[in-house]
Amino acid sequence: MSTSTELIEQLATKEYKYGFTTDVEQEIAPKGLNEDIVRLISSKKDEPEWLLEWRLKAYRAWLKMTEPTWQNVTYPPIDYQGISYYAAPKRKQRLNSLDEVDPEIRRTFEKLGIPLEEQKLLSGVAVDAVFDSVSVATTFRDKLAALGIIFCSFSEAVREHPDLVRQYLGTVVPYTDNFFAALNSAVFSDGSFVFVPKGVRCPMELSTYFRINAKETGQFERTLIVCEAGAQVSYLEGCTAPQRDENQLHAAVVELVALDDATIKYSTVQNWYPGDKDGKGGIYNFVTKRGICKGRKSKITWTQVETGSSITWKYPSCILQGDDSVGEFYSVAVTNNRQQADTGTKMIHLGKNTRSTIVSKGISAGRGQNTYRGAVKIGRQATNARNYSQCDSLLIGDRCGAHTFPYLEVKNTSASVEHEASTSKIGEDQIFYCEQRGISKEDAINMIVSGFCKEVFRELPMEFAVEAQKLLGVSLEGSVG
Amino acid sequence: MSLLDVTNLQVRAEDKQILRGVSLSVNPGEVHAIMGPNGSGKSTFARALAGHPGYEVTDGAVTYRGKDLLDMSPDERAREGVFMAFQYPVEIPGVNNAYFLKAAVNAKRRHQGLEELDAMDFMALIREKAKLLQVDEGMLQRSVNEGFSGGEKKRNEIFHMAVLEPTLAVLDETDSGLDIDALKIVAHGVNAMRAPDRAFIVVTHYQRLLNYIVPDFVHVLSEGKLVRSGGRELALELEEKGYGWLETAGARS
Predict the structure, then answer these.
(1) I need a surface site. Which of A113, A448, B97, B169 has the fewest CB within 10 A?
(2) At what angle do helices A462-475 and A441-457 cross, to 10 degrees?
(3) Cα separation of A255 and B7, whole Å?
(4) Å from B251 to nearest chain A CA?
């Protein structure tokens, strides 16, 4: 046994030695990535052999891959051996009251209208018994279980429903897919698992917020959602509250599987720390999200509002395999200060009569750079496939940038593909017009931006849409003189 | 006390001096028409009163209800009751006209220390005003000015005015590009709004509008100065003689 393995073994057993009495002490694997680290992660999670093998295969594949460079963003090279890939679920530092929270964050909470108790929860203040999120969550889970819906953390799913996980894991995003997906597959920490059985319509929006252990899922999140024939689910990821994290690199993978007549609606509000005005310390968010409409008449809708992170690299995509299946992508991406976003979607039409819709709204302010990158592929067998794409960019100020890269690949002559693009600037005239009616400049900008994003906001669940709208205002604060 | 006192107003736009000393007093209840040839500075006068950022006041003073108007930001002016109907109303895609107006009305009400109107009361208010101005209810639910015809845009401006009930309303060439029917509707709206505590400044190139909105005073602007002031008969005189004869009058003053 090598010395490094010994060290890891020691680390791995540390928890047992010291028991669970220490709140502050953390268990962190040594920096760097190798097969032993992958084994450590798997063993810490008590994973079955097949999953360890899968992780190892992913790791070996990753070693042979190179980091992509085609995206329209710049950042200093990442030292993958300088990162620690495993930390035991750590507890946030407990604060005694909200007064101890960073006033800047509190101000943002207030602007977003986040209830006081929720503010405490988000910033790690000890919460009193009145707001017991665990019991709330448990109530929800009981209700879901009665319908046969599984909604739990990924680790729990591996323990409780290994066959389901094994059946679907990596079927949409194989570990060989791309550099970041391979990395995630090797070292993923935790995430969500949702399974909706045949014919069941999930009666409520599923939100990570209501899932126990949802917090602190770490930097390599993995989510898998499966809807059997005729099932329906709407899943909400993230929240509008600003999230800080010590890990700069985030590489998540989300896989969606929709069987015959199933519908999956996946909505995201992403507000990771964007860095300071010069972009320092912001999160790099490199995400692979993909859904497969495997069955006939199935439907997958991605809706995202991306306001955070210093770099966003994300292309929620749909593989439209089933005949008559539908893929939709609605996106608002905001870049302010030094933020960079390269985001879009891929719609891969394989089945007959498949339809896809892409609506992308990019907003650039400050020195932000916003890129839409989208691919529409129509396969040979995809008779009568239809796609409609609309990409609009809004510029605020004259130091920001907007870029659009649509890719088209059509192999079936019966296809109909439409692409519309526009770039506009918030005009002084528009702002003055609002001001002349008594609306303040700040409210005017919010209003103009919300109007610009309307088609996307209306795809979000109601309360989420209201919050997202406020979030946009906060994100763009101070962007116009 | 007059509602508005403009003294020696000098305004520059894009490095060009446009207004070269305009003085004017407006009392509550009065309707003043500002006429003049193209480039005389009519619209500049209107926009400077509203506080358009493209127009720089280089000298002079404007007192509105005893306060220094030039010291207020454009939105403050609006909340204090100054309204300008735009010559070229701006489109705001995706923002519902009724929603926009509700934000405007409530911004003003907050400023006045009044309770904000809820959706029900607000809808009742705008339905009443829409009826008054023969504004189609469909127009309320469309995005602000987006895809509106020229006439619809102007009518929407007057509709905004009716809903916001300003103390001083400035109409910047509201008649331009309107056919006679649209013109009548707009004039009808203005006339319906005339009140002892409200004043209008109507900026227009043509006297045609003044057949329908009968002014108390007519002022003629030429090369950045008011060269003639008089009653409504002055407008008729202008109609007859055109603006050409003013050149000499302007030189004289």
Answers:
(1) A113
(2) 140
(3) 70
(4) 35
Residue A71: DSSP 8-state: S
Quote the pLDDT of residue A22: 29
**DSSP labels for A304-343?**
EEE---SEEEE--EEEE-STT-EEEEEEEEEE-TT-EEEE
Q: Quick one: tokens of A288?
A: 């692979």
Q: Are A131 and A121 in contact (CB under 8 A)?
A: yes
Please return the burial class of B251, using the count of CB atoms within 10 Å of its CB with bins 0-12, 13-18 and 19+: exposed
β-pair partners for B172:
B203
**What CA–CA distance (Å, rounded) separates B126 from B159?**
9
pLDDT, tens digit, 9 for 90 and up, residues A306-317: 888 888 889 999
Most confident region among A101-110, A271-280, A438-447, B126-135 by mean pLDDT = A438-447
Eight-state DSSP code of residue B208: G
Q: Which pLDDT band holds residue B52 (cuts at 50, 70, 90)?
A: very high
- Mutate: best of B86, B95, B101, B106, partner A, most A CBs <10 A: B95
Regarding an ipTM greater than 0.90, the answer is yes
Token pair listed for B251:
């030189």
- Mutate: best of B92, B109, B110, partner A, most A CBs <10 A: B92
- With bands split at pLDDT 50, 70 and 90, how would you rate the model's confidence at A238? confident
